[in-house]
Amino acid sequence: MAHADKPFDLTRYLRTSNAAVNHALKRFLPSAATAPSTLHKAMRYSLFAGGKRMRPALLLAAAEACGGSVVNALPAACAVECIHTYSLIHDDLPSMDNDDLRRGKPTNHKVYGEGIAILAGDALLTQAFEILTHSKATQRYSHRELVLELSRASGSLQLIAGQVADLEGEGKKLSLSKLLYIHKRKTSALLCSASRLGGMSANCTPTQLRALTDFGYHIGLAFQVIDDILDVTQTSEKLGKTAGKDIAAQKATYPSIVGIEKSRQIAAQLTANAFAALKPFKGKATALEALAQLLLHRDN
Amino acid sequence: MAHADKPFDLTRYLRTSNAAVNHALKRFLPSAATAPSTLHKAMRYSLFAGGKRMRPALLLAAAEACGGSVVNALPAACAVECIHTYSLIHDDLPSMDNDDLRRGKPTNHKVYGEGIAILAGDALLTQAFEILTHSKATQRYSHRELVLELSRASGSLQLIAGQVADLEGEGKKLSLSKLLYIHKRKTSALLCSASRLGGMSANCTPTQLRALTDFGYHIGLAFQVIDDILDVTQTSEKLGKTAGKDIAAQKATYPSIVGIEKSRQIAAQLTANAFAALKPFKGKATALEALAQLLLHRDN
Q1: Are A196 and A213 in contact (CB under 8 A)?
Q2: CA B185 to CA B108: how far, in whole Å?
Q3: Collapsing DSSP states into helix, strand and coil, what is residue A106?
Q4: Between A and B, how many residue pairs show a Cβ–Cβ distance under 8 A?
Q5: What percent of chain A has pLDDT over 90?
Q6: pLDDT score recorded for residue B255
Q7: pLDDT tens profile A210-262
Q8: Contact between residue A57 and residue A10 where contact means Cβ atoms under 8 Å apart
Q9: What is the CATH architecture of A11-297?
Q10: Is B33 on the interface with A (CB under 8 A)?
């Protein structure tokens, strides 16, 4: 818990929340030895490949801002991370982004082959909904609402819509509004849902849910604009994935459309909007604020 | 509803239940014009490609056997069909079974390309859980239980485990017990779950749920043994998919391990076990019985 009189220790916060999430994920997922062992190894390979666990951290911090507990928020945090990981595995496939590196390691299909990589993604997506059933329903939010929230954010109108638009936009000159369409769905939707699910696990009020939606939406967009900037300005080693890929694939990005400086301004403005959204929490959303700062200033 | 004094009209029953399922699926799924239009077209292409809707029919018949209504069972029936369709789309991909024909039409990736086919499968899988939230929870079975049921049956220990074992078994000489392992998961798990979800939507008793589990398990296995037989004995035209594929791919099947005649005996025995499981319904499971008969005697 944060205290107003000393600065918030985000490094420590993330260490604790990541440990809790990793522990829970290991418990929720079948062991690597469970048959079919290749599949469970492949699922765990990508799930424990050193991801930053930003979505679970956001979810836990949102729960905390609403007076909720880590224990009640953990199943949803793990579910969101399973969705995120599945989407990366499928996104890296040869028929999609065709990427060889992810988080500094060979991508799932490079290690396990395309067939198993597709099935490992399918299994993580399915597992997300199983894990979500371990959540405790609250007075305001039943299991039904939790499933509806996660399925919509990950579905054909949000996360997958973003992937499709991204796939169809490759090599094309996109307008800023089309790029915004992609970013909203491909990145912002799940981050926004993580923020909302955190609140829901803590039985948040409608006002709090609106604030978390607004916060998650803006922080999600900022996250992707910064991703675009880092792809141009950082090395593959630093990113843990192939840098300059966007340019090579002639992908439309914020820097390619409005330039680096303007992109930085946009990211800063989005982050400012995210901070403004947190006002209803009256200083109690310290972890969320610290996360937003980290996302803006990260270099990988 | 069936009457003891005249034979059950299965053709009419299936026509009615398929119409209800198709109508509901069209309502639950985003229209083909909804952005991203390619994705929604691809989802609908496979979902409305003339599938027999055996799983939904089984689910509705199980609900009816427990005194439930079609309306309450429809969301689960549609959810199961979405799962089934996604698994076919992914199963047909070049890195899996590499099939060009399905239900007499080009497979999804042949029409829309691999990237969109993978995403259409992902979207149908996700949509299944969203559709399931439209179910009405009953006194004995909450939304939590419905989601747990569907996610487990479709997950890494059941449906996907079957796909993996199938993939890894290609070109290998399999024992009958290994083949049984595959069939249980790849086919029986979801049929069994359809039967159970039908009961659950009708607030079935624990005794009824056990009976439906037993019935679904045996009918699911019989279904797959018959599929294996038909692959050897029928033409591609009749099957609506490439016949003789199992032999070409050197796939282990019931006929290849125990021969056609013994396979027919096994299918008949499994169907008899399925009938026996229906005893607790004391003649009220007429539609389920008729479906079991149809599955045994079908020729495509």
Answers
A1: yes
A2: 23
A3: strand
A4: 142
A5: 80
A6: 92
A7: 999 999 999 999 999 998 999 888 766 666 666 666 666 677 889 999 999 99
A8: no
A9: Orthogonal Bundle (1.10)
A10: no
